[in-house]
TrEMBL record:
<dbReference type="InterPro" id="IPR004869">
    <property type="entry name" value="MMPL_dom"/>
</dbReference>
<keyword id="KW-0812">Transmembrane</keyword>
<keyword id="KW-1133">Transmembrane helix</keyword>
<keyword id="KW-1003">Cell membrane</keyword>
<feature type="transmembrane region" description="Helical">
    <location>
        <begin position="419"/>
        <end position="438"/>
    </location>
</feature>
<keyword id="KW-0472">Membrane</keyword>
<feature type="transmembrane region" description="Helical">
    <location>
        <begin position="714"/>
        <end position="732"/>
    </location>
</feature>
<feature type="transmembrane region" description="Helical">
    <location>
        <begin position="256"/>
        <end position="278"/>
    </location>
</feature>
<dbReference type="InterPro" id="IPR050545">
    <property type="entry name" value="Mycobact_MmpL"/>
</dbReference>
<feature type="domain" description="SSD">
    <location>
        <begin position="248"/>
        <end position="381"/>
    </location>
</feature>
<dbReference type="InterPro" id="IPR000731">
    <property type="entry name" value="SSD"/>
</dbReference>
<feature type="transmembrane region" description="Helical">
    <location>
        <begin position="323"/>
        <end position="352"/>
    </location>
</feature>
<feature type="transmembrane region" description="Helical">
    <location>
        <begin position="358"/>
        <end position="382"/>
    </location>
</feature>
<feature type="region of interest" description="Disordered">
    <location>
        <begin position="114"/>
        <end position="164"/>
    </location>
</feature>
<feature type="domain" description="SSD">
    <location>
        <begin position="578"/>
        <end position="743"/>
    </location>
</feature>
<feature type="transmembrane region" description="Helical">
    <location>
        <begin position="284"/>
        <end position="302"/>
    </location>
</feature>
<feature type="transmembrane region" description="Helical">
    <location>
        <begin position="640"/>
        <end position="667"/>
    </location>
</feature>
Length: 779
């Protein structure tokens, strides 16, 4: 492979214009297609074959209008005032009527209470239904939470001119009202501008009355959670590159190549978004990974080229070809490791997760390809200016004086006292990992958004006016046995049975299909969507011994946004151990092939497990326990994003193997060239540590800049990845690994002869083209 890469690097260096035009054509074409495509970002994250999805699929067949998306508009009065009387009540009634007339809204049966028994139509809304809506048996049975004296004290219908306003309920203090809506399609499938129009209609109707309109989280305008904060990471990266490379010409090249790769990957993803589903987190995740690895991979090759020029006196052309052959070989292996780890997520069989992984893997693959082709072409344009006369003179003086780097003193201290370093690192990482034992997973909800956000204000207003359970409504679908229909006593028994389940605040009939073979109920839990008891309630309703099934023999299915999110969290939590096992096995195999040692793969893998455990522990302490949560721009703790552990594990595994290869391969080559194991550790560390340190600082900076995002999901990803890289690069790879190798001495490189003969030889350092007289340095 190194021979092919050597030719590739030399060709790109001598024909830079052709290479540049090719990449510009790819970038321009991709962005052009993306700009003209009708793709969109989806807010829905679903997993096929979960219990909630099965219920939705059957609803789509039996009652399509009941399987659309739901949303809530919350109305709040000025402090100390009411909104359920006078002009304010009339304005809310006007907004509800205008919204109900929109073609994207399911018609609400306004005469159900007065209709003869059994005439309620099939168009009753699902999750967004009025929990106090009348049932077909309204004249015979009290409503949910009612008794002979009247409605539940928690809420009541909005009454204007003596008639209740369909879909609108008001808190008993009159300070908060809710308009719950059922759309004909999922919200992200509605015509563009529909949601904004709904909010605009409501705001125009209440304008001048002092009433505030707060759309729920599901009604927020969707856009990729990307803003100017990424620039901060790039600025820090540029400063680190300047300090590492000492030249503005050199420092700007990795930034330029990384942006090119991200532009192509980003544009390509949007271009395909009309045929594949992109969630809101997908573009941001691809951007942060693409920027980080794109800068680092280019840095590894560029640093190697400069060292060959400065220390070996090679020309820029020869040094570029040599760097692509040597450092480029390591970059190919490192990038392949990240890609394999990401693509490996497809074995879990979760659609939206697979899409996220493939988009991120594509940006990594582009980063490798660009580092091997576009970077040499740019170096061809820069020529000998890549190393300034000042840098050449400084290197000459250092060689003459035999200057010792501070990194030598660090690694020499580790070699002298390995037990101190090992015990300290294991103790620190073990302590940091403790919070992960109580890690709780969940999906995003308005309850953990920043307090100044509209979604959080809406969530808090609902909790204040009606109880937190109204933020987590469940849709329960009841089906009688074969050849049976649902009559009024059945419906009454089902409603009472649902209300008798622990942790149910209220239950109400939402609608029945025309042949009375299915009924839908709106069930309001006592707790919010992130509470463990809400998940237990979903399981209790699905169990065959629930009160409804025992009373009527009907089977229950549970769906709705809350149930879907609970099912996603459960499936992802169950898949995490399986994926970690895949990663561990892959790590052992790849490192065995690369380093031809039994001990080093085990040591590296154990180090990775320590890194990932500590990463989850620190992330749990901040986001779930609320420790120092202000530093990430949040004010309320909550569960970790359910797909964060799997994605972070895959990405960090690839990056950890990058640093492992770049550091330990230099140590291995020094040992192969005859140095003692401990001397090889010191020399190999000296060759690689400076650039690995720079690469790690760049990655931490890029990832940490995403903590400034307004999206709590992206905050968690940016924080976890920056902490993970910080831990793995500095505590594990640059501290624990040298200490353990020093302690094991010659045993570090032990490999049984029979296994040595079976294993193929993998040249990740490009030894065929290492013309220097020193150990091959992949960076």
């Amino acid at each position: 492979m190194s021979t092919v890469l050597h030719r590739l690097g030399r060709t790109a260096f001598h024909r830079p214009i052709i290479v540049l035009l090719l990449w510009l054509a790819v970038l321009g074409g991709t962005l052009g297609v993306a700009a003209t495509s009708d793709g969109q970002i989806s807010t829905s994250m679903t997993i096929d074959d979960t219990a909630s999805e099965q219920v939705l699929d059957r609803l789509q067949e039996d009652l399509p209008q009941a399987s659309g998306g739901q949303g809530t508009l919350v109305f709040t009065a000025p402090e100390g005032q009411r909104l359920d009387t006078g002009p304010r009540a009339e304005a809310m009634a006007e907004s509800a009527t205008a919204i109900a007339e929109m073609p994207e809204l399911v018609d609400r049966p306004t005469v159900a209470a007065e209709a003869p028994t059994g005439e309620a139509g099939p168009d009753a809304p699902t999750q967004g239904a009025d929990p106090n809506a009348a049932r077909p048996d309204a004249e015979q049975q009290p409503g949910p939470g009612e008794d002979a004296a009247g409605p539940t004290p928690a809420q009541r219908p909005l009454v204007v001119d003596g008639s209740p306003v369909p879909g609108v309920i008001v808190s008993t203090d009159g300070a908060v009202a809710m308009l719950q809506m059922q759309f004909t399609s999922q919200i992200d499938e509605l015509p563009e501008g529909t949601v904004d129009e709904v909010v605009d209609v409501a705001e125009q109707a209440v304008a001048g009355t002092g009433v505030s309109v707060l759309p729920s989280q599901s009604l927020e305008s969707m856009h990729p959670p990307i803003g100017g904060h990424e620039v901060i990471g790039l600025v820090i990266a540029l400063l680190v590159l300047l300090l590492t490379l000492g030249s503005l010409w050199s420092a700007g090249l990795p930034i330029l190549t990384a942006l090119t790769g991200v532009g192509i990957g980003f544009g390509g993803a949007f271009a395909l978004s009309s045929s594949i589903t992109l969630t809101t987190a997908t573009p941001a995740l691809a951007l942060m990974v693409g920027l980080a690895v794109g800068i680092d991979y280019a840095l590894f090759i560029l640093n190697r080229q400069r060292r060959l020029i400065l220390t070996e006196g090679l020309s820029a052309a020869d040094a570029t070809a040599q760097a692509v052959a040597t450092a480029g070989s390591a970059v190919v292996f490192a990038g392949s490791t990240v890609v394999i780890a990401l693509v490996g997520m497809s074995v879990i069989g979760i659609g939206f997760l697979t899409t996220m992984a493939f988009v991120a893997a594509t940006t990594v693959a582009l980063a490798v390809l660009i580092a091997l082709t576009l970077l040499p072409a740019l170096l061809g344009l820069v020529g000998e200016r890549v190393c300034s006369p000042k840098a050449r003179e400084r290197t000459r003086v250092q060689q003459a004086e035999g200057a010792s780097h501070s990194t030598n003193r660090w690694v020499e201290a580790l070699v002298r006292r390995p037990w101190v370093a090992i015990v300290a690192v294991v103790a620190v990482l073990g302590l940091a990992a403790v919070p992960a034992l109580g890690m709780q997973l969940g999906m995003p909800s308005g309850g953990t958004d920043p307090r100044e956000s509209t979604s959080r204000q809406s969530y808090d207003a609902i909790t204040r006016g009606f109880g937190e359970g109204f933020n987590a409504p469940l849709v329960v679908v009841a089906r009688p046995g074969e050849d049976r229909t649902l009559d009024e006593p059945d419906l009454a028994a089902m409603t009472q049975g649902l209300e008798g389940v622990d942790d149910v605040a209220s239950a109400s009939l939402m609608g029945i299909d025309p042949d009375r073979s299915m009924a839908m109920f709106n069930v309001i839990p006592e707790q919010g969507p992130d509470d463990e008891r809400t998940g237990e309630l979903v399981e209790a309703l699905r169990a065959t011994d629930n009160p409804v099934t025992e009373r009527t023999g009907a089977t229950l299915g549970v769906t709705g946004l809350t149930a879907v999110n609970i099912d996603i969290t459960e499936r992802l939590g169950a898949a995490l151990p399986e994926y970690v096992a895949i990663i561990v096995g892959l790590s052992l195999l790849l490192l065995l092939l690369v380093f031809r040692s039994v001990v080093i793969p085990i040591k590296a893998t154990v180090g990775f497990l320590l890194s990932i455990a500590a990463t989850f522990g620190v992330t749990t302490a901040v986001f779930q326990w609320g420790w120092f949560i202000d530093i990430v721009g949040l004010d309320t703790p909550g569960p970790l994003l359910s797909f964060l552990p799997i994605m972070v594990t895959g990405i960090l595994y690839g990056l950890a193997m990058d640093y492992q290869v770049f550091l330990v391969s230099s140590m291995r080559e020094a040992h192969v060239h005859g140095q003692s194991p401990r001397r090889a550790i010191v020399d190999g560390f000296e060759h690689s540590s400076r650039v690995v340190t720079a690469a790690a600082v760049i990655m931490v900076s890029v990832f940490a800049s995403f903590v400034l995002s307004d999206d709590p999901m992206i905050k968690q990803f940016g924080f976890a990845l920056s902490v993970g890289v910080l831990i793995d690069a500095f505590l594990v790879r640059m501290t624990l690994v040298p200490a353990v190798m020093s302690l094991l001495d010659h045993s570090s490189w032990w490999l049984p002869g029979w296994l040595d003969r079976l294993l193929p030889t993998i040249d990740v350092e490009g030894q065929d083209h290492d013309t220097t007289g020193t150990p091959a340095d992949p960076v």
